[in-house]
Structure formats: structure tokens, C-alpha cells
Amino acid sequence: MTENLFYFLSSLTLLCALMVVISKNPVHSVLFLIITFFTISGHYILLNAQFLAAVNIIVYAGAIMVLFLFVIMFLNMGKEKETIKTSTMSKVAGTIAGGLLFVVMIAALKDADVVGYNPDTYTSQTGMVESLGSVLFRDYLLPFELASILFLVAMVGAVMLGKKEAGEQHF
Amino acid sequence: MEPVDLIYKAIYILSIFGVTLLIATYSTYAERKVAAFIQDRIGPNRAGPFGLLQPLADAGKMFFKEEFIPANSNRALFILGPGIAMLIACMSSAVIPFGDMLLVGGREVYLQAIEVNIGMLYVFGVVSLGVYGLMIGGWASNNKFSLLGAIRAASQNISYELAMGLAIIAILMISGSLSLREIAAQQVGFNWNIWYQPLGFLIFLVCAFAETNRAPFDLPECETELIGGYHTEFSSMKLGLYLFAEYINIFVASAVMATLYFGAYNFPFMENLRAAIDDPVTANNVVTIVGLVVMFAKIFFFIFFFMWVRWTLPRFRYDQLMKLGWQILIPLSILNIILTGGGILLKENLF
């Protein structure tokens, strides 16, 4: 049952991710990307990580993708797709770059072995909120706080960039 | 899971679904009656006794109207939009505990469709998805007014989600759990969260109005500026689904507010009532059923409150809406978190 579900979800994920790239209409691409996030959340639930699944939906599907859709709807890009022409040169360059990335990935994954779980030490509570909270705030407190400082800096930077400029004064 | 449990779950999920739709249907009737009362009119009174069959007549009208799809619209997304709005609206009532536990033939039957330990996050996630139906429908109409409505809906939802999330964090700090069942169980008797979180409740209430696109925050569909906003081009039952989804959202928002702040199914002197009945099984069942009634009474009060505000307050201007969200509600909710943290520390160290 779980295995079938996994294969179903995986094929759906790959199909939707492919459709993100293939679709001509950017709004369709964004919608397929949202479905991709949902299927990834499905994978998290299969891995018994409910918190991660919910946060993935809230942050990516609920906030970031709304902003993406917002911007793309304003740009109205679907209309002038005839004017955008990809030159043969960039097609060749893209194929080579993508192929090289593919080779690197195969090389990296070729010798990696899959770590299965050990039934003796396995607890179903690993992905739950309580254990995640205690790990984040006990074992990894410093990296966690450092990451929050990084976000604060990014936020201040965004506010600075978005501020109105008065004359020569930049801040 | 045993087959009996499975059957019970199926029945319960179906009945919650039915109750949600029924309440949303009669909310349209209640809305018009409340509006009539506030404006000193009579309201619908022709279809059936007291106009009680009016929602059915409205639905019949909606179904038989011409279904118009604009020529240059994005056909697939135009049809998908109202469907998404409706689907997402129906999803969130799954985790709300409408009642405690019934004992039927020695079996514990919880009056909650799904118990997940991230219940609050589930509701929040579904609420954050609610805007897609509006955005997709508005964009696919290929109409400037619809697009503006969709854009307004998106920016409004994102702005108010932040303050809403911060208000929820304060609740999670005092309850220490994300599970809605546990949050409900902690507010036993009259020990409701509203006594500890009055400011948080106010912020949550304002954000709930904004998230459901209700007046005074109904800028995505405001007639004076945008004709009908995101649903300008929609007709027939597609329009009906959008309007219906709004009422379902009101029901769910009311249920969440009742659960988080007003003690869900708990009511004062419930322990006295439990003690007054000798047989523990009967006592539990009586308390649970009274609790279920109390829960729905709270929900109906909040639905009434939504309507009361709609017919009393004028609409915000768009810059006022953004200012309220970003410059007043978010700092207030951060202050609320700090106050709650201080309160928890004080309680631990002094008492």
C-alpha cells in the first residue's frame, strides 16, 4: 500500500515538475509547481514528518507561490510569447550545461548507498513537532539562531531596497 | 483500524460535510434576514414559511441561469477557479473538534473527523491556500477589474496571514500543543483562552474578517471600484460556488475562533452537570451532547457577528487596509507574543 502510494506520488511529482518546464503559459507553470509542492508534502507525510509537510504547504504553496503568481499575473507574460525567440546557440549551450549537470549527478549518486532504517532504534515520533522542537532548541540552538539572524538581515535589506529614494539621499 | 471505526469515520465525515453545506446554505438566508433587520426591512418572506425555502429557490435560479464563458478567457482555469475555491473551503472543517467523546456500547466515539497532532497548522495551511481560487478565477477571466480583484485578494491574504499566524503563536505558547483536540480539552469548564488572550483574539478576529474577504475587508469584490472584483465575469453556479465558498469560510473561521478562544465544546459548570448524573456513561454522553449544542451556539454567534459587522461598518480604503495589516496588527501581535511570554515566566516563578 505504502509502496504503491510512493510510486504514484513520485510519478506525479516528476510529471508535474516536468510540466513546470514544458508549459508555454507561465501561469500554468506556477500552478504545476504548486501541485509539485503538494506531492512533495505527500512524500513528507509518507515519511511520517507531518510538521514538515504542513510547513512546506504553508510556506511554499501558501505564501511564496502566491507572490510568484501575483508577479506573473501583473507581468501578463503569456501574451507576447511569439516575440521571445531562443537562438540555436543558447539551445546548444543549454543542452551541454544540463547534460553535464546530469553526468555530475549520476557520478555523485552512483556509489552512494541507501541507508535503510534500523527497526530497533526507529521511533515513529522522529518527525513530530515535539521531537523537532527539542532537537532544534537543544542540540542545534546556535545554528538555528544564526539562521534567524540571516533572515533578519535579509528582511532589513529588502526594506532598504524597497524604500523610496528622496533626491540624492539613498536611505 | 477496525471496520466499525472506518464506517463511523465515513459517516462522521459525511455528516460534517453535510452540516457545513447546510449551515452555509442557511447563512445566505440569515445574512438577508439580518440585513433586513438592521435596515428595518422585512427580508425574504415569500418562498415557504418565513421565506425559509429562499436558499433553495436561489440555488435553483443559479443552476438554471446561462453559463457564460468569456471568449478570450483561459477556459480551463476559468472553470477550475470556483471549484478550487469550494474544495479548499470544505477541507478545513476536518480537524475541528465539534464535541468531546461519546460512549456508545463501550466504544469511544470522538466527535472529530481527523485527529492530527498538527491540527492548527493544517487549518492555517488550508486557509493560506484559500486565495488560489480567487486568483485563478480572476486572472482567467481576462478582465482588468477581475485581475485587480484577484491581485487585491492575494496581497490582502498574505498581509493578514502574518498577523494571524503571530496571534496563533501566542495561543500555542500557552497551550503547548498544536492539536485542536488538546487545545479544546485544556479549556475545560470556564477556563477559556479568551481570558488569557484578549488582544490575541482581537487580532485573530480582524484577520479572520480579512481572510474570508468579508466587509469591511471585502475589497477584492468591492462594487464601487471593481464592479464585482474577481467574480465579475462569472455567472450561473460558478458565481454561486464563489459566494458559497465565502459562507463556508465564515463557518470554518467561526468554528476555529470558538475552538481556539471560546472553549470549543466546554461550558461553565460542566463538571457539576457531570457529577449530578449517577451513571458515568450517561453523564459523559449528556455532557458531550450539551457541549455539541454549546459549540454550535458559539459558531452561530460568530456567524451572526460576521453579518452584524458587514451591515454596520463601511469598507476600508485600500491603503488603510494595508496600513492596518502591516503597521498596526503585526506590531500588536508581536507585542502580544512578548506579553504572553512574560506572563508565562511570571506564572512559573511567582505562583
From TrEMBL, chain A:
It is a multi-pass membrane protein. InterPro entries: NADH_UbQ/plastoQ_OxRdtase_su6 (IPR001457), Nuo/plastoQ_OxRdtase_6_NuoJ (IPR042106). It is found in: Cell membrane. The keyword Lipid biosynthesis does not apply. Its EC number is 7.1.1.-. It comes from the Bacteria. Keywords: Cell membrane, Membrane, NAD, Quinone, Transmembrane, Transmembrane helix. It catalyses: a quinone + NADH + 5 H(+)(in) = a quinol + NAD(+) + 4 H(+)(out). The chain crosses the membrane at residues 6-23, 30-51, 57-77, 89-109, 140-161. NDH-1 shuttles electrons from NADH, via FMN and iron-sulfur (Fe-S) centers, to quinones in the respiratory chain. Couples the redox reaction to proton translocation (for every two electrons transferred, four hydrogen ions are translocated across the cytoplasmic membrane), and thus conserves the redox energy in a proton gradient. PANTHER family: NADH-UBIQUINONE OXIDOREDUCTASE CHAIN 6. Belongs to the complex I subunit 6 family. This is NADH-quinone oxidoreductase subunit J. It comes from Pontibacter silvestris.
Automatic annotation (TrEMBL), chain B:
Keywords: Cell membrane, Membrane, NAD, Oxidoreductase, Quinone, Translocase, Transmembrane, Transmembrane helix, Ubiquinone. It holds the Pfam family NADHdh. The chain crosses the membrane at residues 6-29, 77-99, 119-141, 162-180, 192-210, 241-265, 285-308, 328-346. One of its GO terms (molecular function) is NADH dehydrogenase (quinone) (non-electrogenic) activity. It catalyses: a quinone + NADH + 5 H(+)(in) = a quinol + NAD(+) + 4 H(+)(out). It is a multi-pass membrane protein. Its EC number is 7.1.1.-. Its main location: membrane. Coiled coil: none annotated. NDH-1 is composed of 14 different subunits. Subunits NuoA, H, J, K, L, M, N constitute the membrane sector of the complex. This is NADH-quinone oxidoreductase subunit H. It comes from Pontibacter silvestris.
